[in-house]
Specification:
heterodimer; A: 373 residues; alpha+beta; Butyryl-Coa Dehydrogenase, subunit A, domain 1; Butyryl-CoA Dehydrogenase, subunit A, domain 2; Butyryl-CoA Dehydrogenase, subunit A, domain 3; 3 domains; four-stranded mixed beta sheet; four-stranded antiparallel beta sheet; 11 helices; 51% helix; 15% strand; globular; B: 401 residues; 10 strands; 41% helix; Mycobact_Acyl-CoA_DH (chain B); FAD (chain B); AcylCoA_DH/ox_N_sf (chain B)
């Protein structure tokens, strides 16, 4: 089947994206974030920081159907595709909004690929307003999908999951656990007996991350072949975070272009000078490449699965390199002010440092993509 | 853009595909140069003129142009024809300046009589066009051009010189910019159609670093141009030129100009195939993660360029009508250059072997292509000028000049 020229981005998606954008602008998430961290001795750590987020806004997002956007209608969801989810994720990134939305959307695609009755039950719970995240990685942070430090024996989990995103914000987990030579996926509520949460001290102020230790915890198996399920959902996992990064990179581009018009040195706005103007254009070139690859990857997952992995690895590769360049130039070209705590450039810069390495940087993604070339 | 093709589009695509399959010309005895702007050989000229004429008759060129101007009178089909021509890996169209610049300029600014006179032979390649913009003292700073045109009765007398004139030695017509008012920099330039085969016009080839020719110096000495060959108003030349350059930069839909036969996808796929085949340190180059990373990065950028064009057609996702199209020339030329640089690195010491050496990989095409890639990054507004335009027009930064 030929892919749609418009990525499957029709009127419905345009309206969704537009309302997501206006919603994020309206909520002013960075002002809310600054209120929480203002006056604290250590803004980097604490149970309410940096994992703090606007809970009322999240409830509204749930009510708008965004958290269940990609849940099939049979499980009570909206039944939209990855292109639609990506459109919203891009707006989350543009606003640098602290929210469990992206993690929940990623969890949805893993549950969809699991395609078991148990997984469908968890999808149903997302439709009812629950949020979820993925607990897949071991201590050394390898990006392979079979490197979990958690083991499962007779439906009981032991060990620790590392680098779990949005751990302070979500209701349930999908956990990769080793059972003999295989990896299976389990799902459980964070409040389950024997679950211990520890929070990481991370660079990014807009996210939170942590470790989950399982002490003989009872959990429900949702996929017997966990590695295959995760691999099938990987294009969605990668493309959603790449979309978030595309939105954040575009924000940095616009902020820097605007600053270059108002900041005056040597009697001229600094954007007059080609040493400033040209790198800002280079930011745009990269941001556009990423954005195009993100929509192409989402459309490939929706309509041409045979090409989805290659497209998603290329999109995340591009997103990581674009993020690094845009964050670097934005901070440099803003001069001293961009380096300060008060300026929002630092918030985006740190969100992008986090995203750049999440699930593998550009080099890793290209190594994966090469298997499909 | 519709999510799926209409029946008309689908039928036309199938027609183009079948026609190109059936009419693919036999290869030339001496291989064609890599792009249309390097053509100098008479045999190549005849071969390419015949090929373009055939494609025009088949409806692959001027597909969407009105019938009174020699077009085929369709709407929305040129893009399909052009993409099928690219896909078929057939020879390029020699009259690329005629198709890519002269035709869009005439359609936008020409009189009825000019359009009806000049357009049909552009499409059929019976009359080749070249462009007379740059001068020895006016490159990136084009507006400082000095070639003068002085009105005498119904004629203009032109004196000066032009440089980097691709196809100048084959052309029947030149798109000429000349100064008609020395005291008004921007409004003192007028746009003409200049005949190349009249007294006073001297064409002298310039040899490039590749050893090929293809572009020229053109000297204009008391050249007489009738006033009816002026395009648009006296003094409107700069405005008209900007619209011509916009066509060159890929922003116009165009009438089917194809200046090089190989798509960037085909080039990177060829390079990856070479990496899988060529041995280095006892294993294929592709097995070396450093080279693999470089090649996949190039593939990613080429894919992004193609997905950019796709996204440009989605109004809600393109960031404004001109944002992506204005990046086309910059992206295409810089990615092409980087691709050839990587290719030479991959060849190692074999990169030293040039066209004609019996041991040269692909007859030296990678070294030749690397050198020719500077045509892309310098001509038609250098990459630096492209970045000024993008910074100013798309991002709103202050004008450098």
């Amino acid at each position: 089947m030929p892919q749609p020229a418009d990525f499957g981005f029709g009127e419905e998606q345009a309206m969704l994206k537009d309302s997501a954008r206006r919603f994020m602008e309206d909520k002013q998430p960075l002002l809310a974030l600054r209120k929480v961290i203002a006056g604290t001795e250590d803004p980097y750590f604490g149970k309410e920081r940096p994992g703090s987020y606007d809970r009322e806004a999240w409830k509204e997002m749930v009510a708008l159907g965004w958290s269940a956007l990609a849940v099939p209608e049979a499980a009570g969801g909206v039944g939209m595709n990855l292109v639609s989810a990506v459109a919203v994720a891009e707006e989350v990134g543009r606003a640098a909004m602290p929210t469990p939305l992206t993690s929940t959307l990623q969890t949805i695609f893993v549950l969809r690929e699991a395609a078991t009755a148990a997984a469908e039950n968890w999808l149903q719970q997302i439709s009812e307003g629950k949020s979820g995240t993925l607990a897949l990685y071991g201590k050394d942070g390898s990006h392979e999908l079979d490197q979990s430090d958690v083991t499962a024996v007779d439906g009981r989990l032991n060990g620790t999951s590392f680098y779990v995103q949005d751990l302070q914000k979500v209701d349930f987990l999908v956990v990769a656990a080793r059972e003999g030579d295989t990896v299976k996926l389990y799902a459980l509520e964070l409040s389950a007996e024997g679950v211990q949460l520890d929070f990481d001290r991370i660079v990014d102020l807009t996210r939170d991350q942590g470790r989950v230790t399982f002490n003989n915890v009872a959990a429900e198996c949702i996929a017997e072949d966990g590695a295959a399920t995760l691999q099938a959902a990987l294009p969605a996992t990668l493309t959603l975070v790449a979309a978030d990064m595309a939105g954040a990179s575009e924000w940095l581009l616009q902020a820097t272009a605007e600053y270059a018009q108002i900041r005056t040195q040597f009697d001229r706005p600094i954007g007059f000078f080609q040493a400033v103007k040209h790198p800002v254009v280079n930011m745009m070139i990269l941001a556009d490449q990423t954005r195009s690859l993100v929509y192409a990857a989402a459309c490939a997952y929706d309509t041409a699965p045979a090409t989805a992995h290659r497209a998603a690895h290329l999109a995340k590769s591009s997103a990581s390199d674009t993020a690094e360049f845009c964050a670097n130039r934005a901070t440099q070209l803003h001069g001293g002010i961009g380096f300060t705590w008060e300026h929002d450039v630092q918030i985006y810069h740190k969100r992008l440092i986090h995203s750049q390495h999440l699930y593998g940087d550009g080099v890793w993604q290209r190594e994966q993509a090469s298997k499909y070339l | 853009m519709a999510a799926s093709e209409t029946v008309e589009h689908k039928e036309f695509r199938e027609y183009c595909r079948a026609w190109l399959q059936e009419n693919r010309p036999a290869a030339t005895v001496i291989p064609l140069p890599q792009a249309a702007y390097e053509v100098t050989h008479e045999d190549h000229k005849h071969y390419l003129v015949d090929w373009q004429a055939k494609c025009y008759e088949a409806g692959l060129i001027a597909t969407d142009v009105d019938k009174i101007y020699g077009g085929h009178g369709h709407s929305g089909l040129q893009q399909i024809a052009s993409s099928e021509v690219r896909r078929a890996k057939v020879p390029y169209f020699i009259n690329w300046i005629g198709l890519g610049m002269a035709a869009p300029t005439l359609l936008a600014h020409g009189t009825e009589s000019q359009k009806q006179t000049y357009l049909p032979p552009i499409f059929s390649a019976q009359e080749i066009w070249c462009q007379g913009f740059s001068e020895p003292g006016a490159g990136s700073d084009l507006v400082s051009l000095q070639t003068s045109a002085v009105k005498e009765g119904d004629n203009w007398i032109v004196n000066g010189s032009k440089v980097w004139t691709s196809l100048g030695q084959l052309a029947k017509w030149m798109l000429l910019l000349a100064r008609t008012d020395k005291n008004d920099k921007y409004n003192g330039i007028t746009y003409f159609v200049a005949p190349m085969d009249i007294p006073g016009v001297t064409v002298r080839p310039i040899h490039k670093m590749t050893g090929e020719s293809g572009f020229n110096e053109v000297f204009l000495e008391d050249v007489v141009i009738p006033d009816h060959m002026r395009i648009d108003e006296v003094g409107a030349g700069w405005k008209v030129a900007m619209s011509t350059l916009t066509s060159e930069r890929g922003a116009a839909a165009g009438v089917g100009a194809i200046a090089s036969s190989e798509s960037p996808y085909a080039a990177i796929e060829t390079l990856i195939a070479l990496a899988k085949e060529k041995q280095r340190n006892g294993r294929p180059i592709w097995d070396d993660p450093v080279w693999r990373d470089r090649l996949v990065k190039l593939y990613e950028r080429i894919d992004a360029m193609s997905q950019n064009y796709r996204r440009a057609g989605v109004k809600e996702l393109n960031g404004g009508a001109m944002r992506i199209p204005l990046q086309g020339k910059l992206n295409g030329s810089e990615i092409g250059q980087d691709l050839h640089q990587v290719a030479l690195g991959m060849l190692g010491m074999e990169a030293s072997l040039y066209v004609g050496d019996p041991n040269a990989i692909d007859d030296g095409r990678w070294a030749l292509g690397y050198m020719n890639s500077y045509t892309g990054t310098i001509s038609g507004g250098s990459s630096e000028i492209q970045r000024n335009i993008l910074g100013e027009r798309v991002l709103g930064m202050p004008k450098t000049k």
